[in-house]
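Dear Dr. V.,

Thank you for agreeing to look over these. As mentioned in my earlier message, I'm a first-year student in the group and I'm still getting used to reading structure tokens, so any feedback on how I've presented them would be very welcome. I ran two proteins. I've put each sequence directly above its structure. The first is here:
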Amino acid sequence: MCCESKRRFLLLYATQKGQAKAIAEEIWQQAGAHGLEADMHCMSEMDKFNLETEKDPVVIVISTTGTGDPPDTARKFVKKIQDKTLPPDHFAHLQYGLLGLGDSEYMFFCNGGRTVDRRLQELGAQHFYDTGLADDCVGLELVVDPWIDGLWLALQEALQLQEEKEGMNNSVDAVSSSLSTAPHAVHELKLSSEVQNLKLEDERARGSDVLSQNLDDINLVAPDTEPSLVRSVPPVSQSALNIPALPPEYIEVEFQDTQGENPHLSSLVSEGTTFEVPVTKAVQLTREDAIKTALLLELDIADTAFEYQPGDAFCVICPNNDSEVEELLHILGLSEKGDDFVCVKVKQGTKKKGASRPQHIPERSTLKFILTWCLEIRAVPKKAFLRALVECTSDVGEKRRLQELCSRQGASDYTHFVRDSNVCLLDLLHAFPSCKPSLSLLIEHLPKLQARSYSVSSSDLYQPGRLCFVFNVVEFPAGPSRPVSRKGVCTGWLAELVAPLLHPSKNTLDTKGESSSTEKISIFPRPNNAFHLPADPSVPFIMVGPGTGISPFIGFLQHRQKLREQHTDWEFGETWLFFGCRHQDRDYLFKQLRYFLENGTLTHLKVCFSRDSSTAEVAPPKYVQDILRLCAKEVARVLLKERGYFYVCGDKKHMADDVSDAVVDILSMEMEADKLEAMKILATLREAKRYLQDVWS
């Protein structure tokens, strides 16, 4: 009878890296406690749901990828609803609520969710619950948690209204009873990325465990002690906690005596064809005393079908650090079993809906292969993972602290000591030594090890059969939450891989004489649909790329030089490059830019050095945005009068936004218009794909 009374809603998710799926699963788990049943599907499973005939409310959780695109799993769905022949009342029968995930560090925040939301509205669908836009930059949970809290009342109301319309008055009493226990939440929540000061009330404990512990059993620290990853202070240390429901176990791992071969790396990639290519050259572009180490690598793609244009990106399939894998095996008590084959399958009788082996985990491989190539062991643990780790922890104090970190009351501590500190599983296991998770738990909660994306720094026209790219070796210093310093997963691995190849001469773009190498890496293309040279070579363009942000512009200039040599009768527009770094003598990555200037490929080169001291009466500009302002008239002329292009590549947080602000100031000043009007013009340039960014955070 209980099962019969549960009312259905359709739950759709579209995910790129697993976050939207995890949130959808949380909604699915909580639904039962509210007398509801979530019919959950990935948006890619279009044969399992039909919005054209859907009568029940629909809940959508969707992330954003790339430069504002819907995730790969939503592409077919988005293409279908964007059919221009659909009438404006196509979805007039549909009621839905949408939760979008994004990162405000990037230009098109939550654009995947916004795109679907806007189109459903255009086709007549109605909101039964306001759209939520969660920002990974400040913490998804700031919007996700209260959005889910308010969802249940909105769903109950939508279902009640639906039943009344259908004349199902016999269920009104049950609905009223259910509503009386729902959280006191305002229906029309204005949730967006601006929500930063949400008060997470203790009484909002729907779908979570309320933890009341005898605090006398735990050694509480003095109130004046500073909190840390392993230590809390009042009020958190003295609070009853609202913690997430324990995620159901669903993976089983069996060790096997048989031997065999591990899967090929290409089987781990769903994005397309992979290519195993040799590294033919490695050059350190920075001096040894530079703050960052920048390397240029050259790959031989001559014997492959790999194609690219200047401005494109590509992905490198990289492994986790060997020593970290060995350390993890040791903590798990599996040091002797790293080379043993394991079979990964779904646990019989699991309560997880639609449980299946994660696609990035092979059915059969060695344990070390899974930890090295499949799981992102450096990932910041989600709260659901912390909740699961609680059950693997024997020390009562450590158990309590993990409960705090995944609780509502410990949200600030989680953000500060886990999320913002970039803590990973190994850091947690060192901090909480009595925590002994199973291998199956790691497979359930650690996300897929993602391939790393890099901008191409060459032109196939200029260097046939070669692909170059530039990167800084990322460094993560030791800190209170991280006992040891670490290098970036991919950049650290690449630096170690090419160490024997590094050429003694520095700052060399076209090094004569190449070292032979047998080292190979696996790559696959990631074409950029917009960040390319203007189709018309007579159109002028401006490039802004400090540090390694200059990488794609080397390819631009190489390509332009070859075009000039091959087509002497063509008209070529002027080219501007704004480059900056810390020190002229330590990290001026490509001094050969002068070569492009001398042969006319590059018309104007503007450089600045932010950390070099100057004795000049008027201090030289420190940053690229400062030089842009000095060239305001020329920048405005290229963009407005000559309809030129503007390219920005590099760090989003500390550069791209400042460059954008500088361009707004320039447009405002040169057009004698107010700032709002200048911002509208810049938005128009973006829309026309004449102001283009390739940025990272």
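The second protein is here, in the same arrangement:
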Amino acid sequence: PPSGVSCSGCGAELQCRDGAAPGFVPAEKYRSLSEGPAGAAGLRGAVCQRCWLLAHHGRALRLQLPPEQHRQVVSAALRRPPRHGRGPLLLYILDVLELPDPVLPQLPGLLGPDVPVAGLLVVGNKVDLLPADSPGHLGRLRQRVAAACAQAGLRGAPLVDVRLVSAKTGFGLEGLVSRLQRSWRCAGDVYLLGATNSGKSTLFNTLLRSDYCKSRAPDAVDRATVSPWPGTTLNLLKFPIINPTCDRIFRRQERLREEATKTEDQLSSEEKKYLNRLKKQGYLVGEVGRTFQRQKPSQVVDFDPDMLSYSIDEDPRHSPRQREEREEFTYNEVKDARWCFDTPGIVKENCVLNLLTEKEVKLVLPTHAIVPRTFILKPGMVLFLAALGRVDYLQGEKSAWFSVMASNLLPVHTATLSNADAIYEKHAGQELLKVPIGGEERMKEFPPLVPQDITLKGIGTSEAVADIKLSSAGWVAVTAHAEEKLLLRAYTPKGTALVVREPPLLPYISTIRGARIVGSAAYRTKKPPSLVENLKTAGKR
């Protein structure tokens, strides 16, 4: 029978009946864990087969789980009766690369008119992947996120703040923790909401090991499973929030002040190694520390002299391996606790990721700092982003600059309008265009590219006029001479969304480029340096 115990990675109820349903554990493993002295409680801390494959092999099992079920889980959770006499605080995680966010306008419908919300805090995630195209680019990004909230009808009373962070590199997270702690008096439980792949589970795991969480919780609460596969979290996961008393706030501020005086040279070799790894992954890096560490008791080693006293004729005896006891919260620790919940991501409709295999998703979703690739195209030229998107420059008086912002693993190719169709027919599904993967057989089932005509008017050679967003595959920023009229035709796979984003997210992106490559439409790529938060860097602000 179903266990009544949730998978510690995705929140689905553990079961061994249906391999295509959430929470599946192979029967042999299920029995070995549940038939011991602890009964079904022996399953606590276990993960389902899907989470195990995602974590250890990067493989994703396709489940029979309709997108509507994700919405139902989230909506039901938000409609729970208020605890502590206060409504929930909603922490909406928004992927800044995906602006305008397709799920944000659905938020009022998820809540309904009868849900008393203490506030809405919108967090723009993955800012570490975007280079600084000009001074003050973070302030401009924050304005874009705030504008997206206003466009979705979220303004005024429920919206309490907008923050920019990187859940992966830690940038902006200490500030987010301080902001959340200031909401303690006016809010009840906290819910992490957002679209699939927005980084909710990564943020949940980071907050679990921060000053926002009870000090003993990391030993009793398992980390959420994180993967690029959309919809990894299937049910609610939670950890208890620490009460930010005056003493705790004071001690935390002391730690932050002390850390702000350190330079990179004062870090330990392990800290430097970790920091350098983060610098390779993102442009913006931060450190998330802990003020309230729980002292663990020293481990007691069982010594059995009989284990060492066997004759030459005897085999050594091995005592049965004791299973490590799992820590549990006491009733008093959690009876009045407020909880932080990770919820299932709302599946994005008309998204190219829904058409891709797990291997293709890994190539399309950027995991490292995006290096902009700029090309100068004349009318009659075409730009391909893998086999997932295409932009044709049909009419214009002068050359224009096209800057591609997409995963560094996706190839970009230019061609002439006369041979573009032949190139797509020959190389889609092959190594040259890379994604989709699988040759002619894969392309038979993959939707064809469909066109949309776009007219733009340039505003200057250093500032892009608009982004052409090719669903979730990336975007192309278009920069043209002032008053120059351009007629473009952009393509994305049938059933996916093509968005013209005005104003562009990074308007000065074309200025981040190296020298022109001789005999080519491309410029040499140029990766800007990384910025480390909360550390004093000698000779720099």
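From my reading of the second output: The chain has three domains: 2-60, 67-275+332-349, 354-527. Residues 354-527 form one domain. Does that match how you would interpret it?

Kind regards,
E.
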